[in-house]
## 1
Amino acid sequence: MIKSFFTLALRTLLKRKLYSFINIFGLAIGVAVCLVILKYVDFELSYDHYHKNAATIYRSTSTYWQNGELRGTGVVTAYSLGPAMAADIPEVKTYIRTHPMYGGAVASYQPGAGDARIFKEEDNMQFADSTFFDVFTYEAVQGNLATALDNPNSVVITKKIAEKYFGTGDALGKTLQVSGGWADGSYEVTAVLTEVPENSHFVFDFMFPIHNLLAGPQYQQDKDGWGWNNFVTYVQLHDNADVKAAEAKIPAFVEKHRGKNLAESNGKLVFNFQPLLDIHRNPGLNYDSAPTVSMNSVYFYILISVFILSIAWINYINLSTARAMERAREVGIKKAVGAVKTQLIWQFISEAVLVNLFAVVIAVVLAIVLLPVLGDIVNKQLAFDFTDLRFWAVVTGLFLAGSLISGAYPAFVLSSFRTIEVLKGKVDRVSQGFSLRKALVVFQFASSLILIAGTFTIYRQVVYMRGQDKGLTMDQMLVIDGPRVIDWKDVKQTEARLTTFKNQLLAISGVESVATSASIPGAGANWGTGMRREGADREESQGGNVVWVDPDFLPTYGLTLLAGHNFNPDVRTDMEGVLVNEAALKTFGLGTPENALRERIILGGDTVSIVGVLKNYHWNSLKIDHSPWLLKADPISGRHFSLHLAGSDFTTTIASIEKIYKEAFPGNPFNYYFLDDFFNTQYKGEQQFARIFSLFAILAIIIACLGLWGLASFTTALRLKEIGIRKVLGASSTSVMTLLSWQFLKLILIASVISVPITWYAIDRWLSTFAFRMGIQADLFIVPLVILVVLALGTISLQILKGANVNPARVLRSE
């Protein structure tokens, strides 16, 4: 009997090839999208699971209150925190401190005695305690990780870096020279790792011992080890330790080590243990560019996959029930010769099983093709693991669920036709009662509208942020990274070299102006610290950002002065003062711009005068609101050279700049980029989200249009006699096309009424996460509706046109 069911099912599929293709291909796309999204979600949730001790590793976070007001939570802590916790909290087995090589450094290697050195600028550099590889799990290609960081002048590198500098040979024992970083010197390669897994929150290419960093003067002068909060501290608890019990000891721990200091500032400090496996899933707590994902985003992607899969299943249900009249006579005859309802149900479910089986096979192939596309969007190497039983469990689950969900309703509906009514031709009124089919079509259209509107909104918000006036000049602003391999022992001589280079740049015909700074817009601040107005109580201190710039920075970047004046290099008090923005006036209670010039700010441990007040400008992305930014004077900075270019022959100008740079600073890599491109990388996450959204929106629309095409074709075929009669009575082809089109357009209008409030709510919630955002305008809903109407009409037009132009004699000759 089962063999008979599947034989009949196969014959039915072959008989109606168009509808079989629509069902199979639509389901295949839906299942493929589901597989791709689930793989991506699985990847995002797998971060740091490869560490053997992951369950017992925690990152220390600190939350600070002042005057009862929450000032923020972060992950950077003092370097004494780890040792103190290991000594005072019994549950702590060991600690690890890490510190990034902020700004990177230049690494160089000399292949042979007479060979030229190879210089490369590197970014992914970290310092860590020598026990780092005892706690975290990495695989060594060469060397022994257990002792790799014991020597202060050792370095562990990845296989990619080893091949970059030393080729494919043995890298152990080779020496790398590091310059322009936080701990310059010669380092011997003591181990080579396989690449750090992509699903790691902590990414590095070089790992240095923390010993040389702590030997720096700023840490040697820090008597108690609590003055510099720029380390990340991890602790490993004992296997059977209770993390709650460990955290319960922290208040006493804080009182012991920081109680006096906190009492003076009326502050409160709380340390918490953040599980290693939760780090990637907590956006906002990473101090650097390490990727994170919001669980809301994960749920959202899963919801999209459910939507798309539902649309594919709806296609099958709609086409199956729409063919009710065609299958009715088949059902009636089978019932007349003795078939029972159960047998008919199993027959139609067999068809669904066969369709879903073909669909799942095609879906696996499509998913293999689609996954690299998604991988390119998220910049990850994603691949299915066909040896993973979970993959096959998901495939089997989708196959069984699809067979049941898409096959059950049509099977019960078709098998319920009454024999006498069917054989008398009275099934018309039964088939006309499928209001559920219309509801499912409305769901498809509503889902498509939401996806189109979401994609449109994301792109519009990114365009809005990129198009806003930043308050500073970005067009034709070329940025050159300053030399990293340079001797700062003789400060005056080095400054003279930098000044000479700057003057040479100004002499190039395509360069309009040049400024130097320790940071640039989009790259963050040089220093974040507590500040307050002179005379204010210490507990009124607020966080602010400081950037060092030279006197040419303001005219080069076109910053607007509201009061005061720019730095004058000939006036000592100017060069010791600061320029503040409007946000600083409000935060520190400085009054009007003119009043602020008579005030002074306590900055860290220094008191500085306010030289001028600047109109608010966007140093960071427009996702963030204006905050206090202070510009501090530096006669010349060697970190960044900003060149405002004139004309359009950038190639010639850049070639001239490169020649001068290499002559002035031999052995330094020449790195340049345009500021607007660099600044806009801050919107990479939103652009990535939009690309993912649009990819799945397109796939959802393709599935919906496939179903609409099949439904239009079948519905038109069912109404051929009606069309023939209307044409005999004088109806034109245009009126018939309007009639047939309206039955689908009204479903789109109903879908739009349903989707608009849902979309408005979702858009409003998403936009609320941006400090500067566009308003919710009507075109956010009108444009997606127009797009969907055009796509729908384009999909059904050929079928409707064919029906409207039918010859009445051909369809009415048997009547």
## 2
Amino acid sequence: MKQQLPIDQVLPELTAAITAGSNVILHAPPGAGKTTRVPLALLELFPSEAGRIIMLEPRRLAAVSAARWMAETLGEEVGRTIGYSIRFESRLSKDTRIEVVTEGILTRRLQSDPLLAGVAMVIFDEFHERSVHADLGLALCLDVQTQVRDDLRILVMSATLEYEQLSRLMKDAPVISSSGTCFPVEDVYLDEHVAEYLPRRMAAAVQQALKEREGDVLVFLPGAGEIGACAERLVDAGVAERGVAIHQLYGDLPFDSQQAAIRPGRQRKVVLATSIAETSLTIEGVRVVIDSGLSRRVRHDLASGMNRMVTVRASRASALQRRGRAGRLAPGVCYRLYGRHTYSAMTPHTPPEILEADLSPLVLELAAWGIADPAALAWLDQPPEAGIAAARTLLQQLGALDENFRITALGRSMTALPLHPRLSRLLLRAGDLDSADLGCDLAALLSERDIIRRGGRRSEREYNLDIGERVEMLREWRATGRAAGSADNAALKTVERVSRQLQRTSGASRTGCAKFDDDTLNRLLLAAYPDRIARRRDGETTRYLLSNGRGACLAGQGRTAAAPLLIVTSVDGGGQAEGIIHVASTLSEELLRDELGHRIEQRVTVVWDEREGRIVASREECCGALRLASVAHIPQPDILLPVVVHALRCSGMGLLSRSDSFYQLQARVNLLHDAYPSDGWPDFCDAALLDTLEEWLAPYLMGRRTAQQLAVVDSTAALFGMLDYRQRQSLDQLAPTHLVVPSGSRIRLDYCSGDVPVLAVKLQELFGLAESPCVAGGRVGVLLHLLSPAGRPLQVTRDLKGFWDGSYHQVKKEMKGRYPKHPWPDDPWSAPPTRKLKPKV
């Protein structure tokens, strides 16, 4: 008797909704059975003449597993009623009614047949994962439905997603919800020792679970490195010797190894998996899930054009998915390597890939669809403009888009190949050079997991960087059947299979293990990575500058070590100031000029050399940010001026020789600027002068190119030139440089000592003066520094009358004995002001 699953309860409502309308959303939590039950239930709605049901799965393993499970339910072999199509492989026949496909397959199907002839319905399974391909596939299917196929049915199935926006996108599609897992799952929160090495913590948790619980164990770890390290610890602990099979499950594993991990076996087993096991897959016998709470994501750095792998805390939706794996076939338990508070702090959903990924494949597909502006399609999340712009730039460099972002004939040929646009371009260039065999090997090596093992006893510095040596390893393994040195046998098998499939796809003939020349290899790499040329920095051995302007350093050695020029095929953004080069090839400048001569620009560079204190000009040949050649150059005078102005601005005018007269003029005008805000006096503060250097100083800078020449510029005259005729005439009247005091002396005003001008004058020269002097038409009072006969300050005041009536008498008492030859009258009001000594008696 068929086991009842939660999804069975809503199947009548689902079929009714699909019969009544075009689009439906199905919410079914993990374990409900939506992947295998729903497509079979919908067969009755669509007779064979109406067309197939296509179901989109995010991963190859999930697609094949779902197809096999449904075929077994019908008692058939895969390829009859139920079939599948994944990259380079399909099991279909004329009788196939349900075709399970991976995401790239649907996109290529749409491009080759925009009407989706012979397709009655498209199902998007596990849509909550929000891959770029799923978002694109839904946008294109909705476009087909709107434009030409109003009879096309679309069903979106998801375990965790916010449905309101998705429903609006799908023309107000109804949302049908199913209950959760078949069986209860107990939660166990383990102590959160974050500082402890994760594989060690996880291995201990696995051993604890094996002792405490029954059934198989599914373990979630962020990546292959942690999985391998944990597996080694479990083997060392003797877990395998106790009759427990240990399986690894991650995307880069050979497909046969992935399937072995999910097939039922006689032994109890532990499956160490990445997020690949979160959805769609049913691993029979699993009763225990252990969740690290971590996942690894690829983030694309738009500034550098590099991808970087980041380990992040998983979302709550992801944690629920993982937990649900334990309750699919029986009651289970979920051990969490984190606490309740950590779980509560997790983000609700995993960010959509379209917001973080390299969008060049998406933009190329849109161009092939005839869409230049992505906003013309319906998206759950609009592709970010910065990502679109970066993708367009790369695709233009590859020759896939023209200057108006329309697809070229070359670009259309690239979309026919199941590869990233870079590698599609490489494969097409290989055909031009009659080197399709080498092109297929290179594309396979660059698209699959690296064939060289890393970690273990090999230090990072021993890691071999050279792509050419990888080709040699592959061909040696092909000829002898033995993996040389640090080559990984399983990875070699995968690369060999992909290479053969690319041979069939491109129609090329295999030449076996023929030798290849480095020039041809580099020509192919330059076609795919025109933006990844790297030049060694002067005086360095491992640090390079990439042609996109980003710095990078070598992660290992090999023939590429310390080479002057490289083509970089694998570089990690790293999240640091410099990227990390993992795979590259040595390049000659001659070949670079021959292959990418159209990208080499002639530039005149004029810069200020701070160390030498002068302008340095050169004529350069550049490939992106890389300088290939440079010769001295004498620039035109008009080119010098902006460079000199920039140098002055960077120095804060420190390169100018500014005299006291400059600062006094600056302060006088600023005082009037503040005192007469509506009279048009200019702002002469340093910030304003720096902003307007071109206006007031440019005529004095013509022809000057050294610090010595700048030091003799008459900056005061330049500044005075900023005043108009009226301001020049009234400047001395409103802000005089000197004041005549009662003694008849002409005393200099200091405008730079503070917010108001200062008059430093001997006390005796002001006898009888009641009011403190003012400037700016009486709006600004002068600050008096009253001096002793020796010129030392006795009093600072703006209230001269108060001084005479008050503190003068104390000053007189103290100073009279010290300076007896100078007048110290009892009544300063009636004493004549003087700068002389008392007359002799």
## 3
Amino acid sequence: MPSAAAIRAAVVDPVRLETDHLELAVCRKSGKWYLRDTQTDELFGSGHQPYGDLGIGGGKPVPMSPKSAEAAADGQSIRVRFEWRGAAGTAEPAAVTYVFRVLPSGRDVDLSVATSGPRGAQPPLLWEALWLAADEPGYFVVPQGAGWLIRAGQKVAHRFLTHAGRAHLTMQMFGVVRNDAALVLSWNDVNACVDLRTLDATDKLPRRTALSFSQTGRLRMRICGKGDYFTVARNYRELAREKGLLVPFAERVKRGPAIAKMPGAFDVKLWMKSGYKANCRFSKDPEKDQFHVERTFDDALATVRHLHDDLGFRRCMVVLAGWIRGGYDFSHPDIWPPDDDLGGPAGLARVTKFTQGCGFLFGLHDNYDMMFKAQPSANEAEAIGEHNSWAGGPQYILHPKVQAKYAVRNLEFIRQCCRPDVYYIDQTMANGLYSTDRRDLPLTRGGCVDVYREMIGRIKSMTGVWGSEDGQEWAVPVGEYHEGILSRDFYPRLGEPIPLFDLVYHDCAATFWHQGMTISLAENRHRWGRNCADPAHYLSLLSIARTPLLRPGTKHWWKTPTAPARKPEAPRRRVVPVGHGASFKALRVVSGGVGREAIWAHPPFLGFRGTVRGEYPVQLPDADGLSLRFAIGLRDGVEKTDGVRFRVEIDGRPRFDRLWSAPRWSEQQIDLGALRGRTVAVALITDPNRDPKFDWAAWGAPRIVNGRGEVVYDFIGKIGKAKVQMVELPADAEATANVFARADRGWAEGMHPLDAAIKNTYEFLSPANELAFFLPITRYERRANGLWVSAFGDGALEVAVNMGDNTVEHAGAALPPRSGFLVRSPTFLALHAAAYRGIVYAPTALFTVRSLDGEPIERSGRLRVFHGFGPSKLALTTARRAATAAGTPLPIDEGKLVVDVKREATLELR
């Protein structure tokens, strides 16, 4: 039975409320319900047992029998009441009343629950509700970390708490998308809990993933109309504003002028000193403390000078970590004075003054969650518990109510030496909210938010900008940056990553990588699995107009001798017969518990890095409604995988490209109507992404059907007709090298490769962030060809990045796979392309163009052109009649200006 039919059939003899946006229907006797989106006619419904069980006085759960429910409408509300007694009437009577109330918006339903009777009775608000069938298009939008999509057919069993650490929710919301209809849940209680669980099929319901919501008494459900996860984010943004959580930087900069220096700033985190107590878990000597100085304050000053003077940084946020007495995380909360090995207070004052003199923000990394027992201020009476042994040895967890006392005390010491603009407090957002029933220092989780916000306010009154580890919505109204929330592999990998946090709060909270992630030249995998040299890593930042974190390891890297850079060449790829562990054969495959006939297409993994490709010659009939239908999935039992890229090419042209890492089937369809009556070559390709381990890839039942649903070509039955080959991917060094470290014929030619990587990424990431910093994301889409397109504000900036495996044409540019981009705004242009406006680059080139007079580029009288690498000619459109560069006239032909730029040039136009 289709999902909508099953949902509707469960609600008999309903009580109804209707608006222009929704219909709410509740069964009078069972209490089962559904919400219908009137725009799309999609249904979101309750589960088989709509309200779960009720715990009576801590005893055995009592099922709320459908026979005991009564529903009745009252104005814009529907009440569902349950009443019962225990067996033989011996138990105390109890009652539960659920109230559905349609709010004046006509899009929102407020659901609340009230109980009477035994103390402690707290039923869930939703129980196995808002379910999605495993075989239908749909997904859940999960605000854990930066955000994930969990598809309908993905097997899942996860409990999400609110603001409880990395594995849990960073925002007080959840989303559901079925087909083209979107719904968002929102709540205010930080104690709320969401359970997402895959359920087996019953006689009335299919195998499905369903949502339960508990531990609080109120929830809002909003019907969003036609849309996707971006629609969910846009609607929740409105709700967040109502709750006082969405406070844009444009409003806050008036009372926090340091914010004005954040747009375009790279987060430069300089590691100073590490210290380890003999009794800490990192110790290599149980008898002696160990210390290591990575750089002094004067070394840090030299780094800032290099960024400003040599690399031309104008926007930067420099934060020192490990500057405290003893080094990083060694002496909390007694951090003062700054370590003598680094230069003491005088050295700290010098680097602060110089950094701020460059126009940069200057900050210090600190921590007030820790209280090491070895420190003079250690006081168990001010602790909320104990923690593991960290760098400074055994530690207490400092009670949130006393953290501000130590932070203010230490800042008073610091301000006698220097005046930092930025204070980064580690762990505050990462560890989750605390609660305790201590009589002298009672604290609830909701009260913890208020305590932390008060502390942040006091810190900002003495500094200016506040940031912390990871990211949490509760801190958005008072804090400025969230360091680590963009490092997805730092969090449990739940599904498909999306930038949900930025889609909601882009103009309210600056987001960065974790301090363990940084700009890298070659493959540099941390324990979280991130390859920091992968150029796609920078594209993901660019797609949301964010800047990276830079944590240089070598204190004077620019003075280190390096081998001459090799001129890049287009990779040559071998095409060879199948082998090296690759497969392309008919096999029954079970994915997500569902078995189906499939083509088992494991990419090669034994000594050959490449794709497996099966190409079929197909004579298409001259028929209406032709489409290629298939499913993609990984076989059950798959362990750690970075995913498989499933690709379809027709006559050599890309028609489908999807990175998939879930052991479940995902149904897909490609329209072939334009090819009717033709003979075409259809290729099914599986690409190992980066790591071929556990790439248990399968194409589920691929076939071509006509408009009547009849199969006209069965790929499994015709597998003997397929031409099966392996196509070599670029060598590992080529594939993992940071293309943005190139400098051939460009600005950083002859400089250290790390300087080239820093300068090149700064030139396109910093201006994009500067332009978009105060703006919300107004468009975000991921296309089938691998192109991601985003827009900010009202036409202020558009970004297109190619995350696919084939070159993509976009707005006059040929964007190379997994590194190509085009950034356009009235006053800024940036591109990494294989061709642009008729000029072909072999293999690629990087340029940026910025208007220096604030006029649109086409009408500007002064333009700065930066050339990062590759061929040096760039074509521009101008309405001006004459142009010069360094006094040399430049020809303009019918509005087309071609410039030849070695490093950078300022163009004068009139």
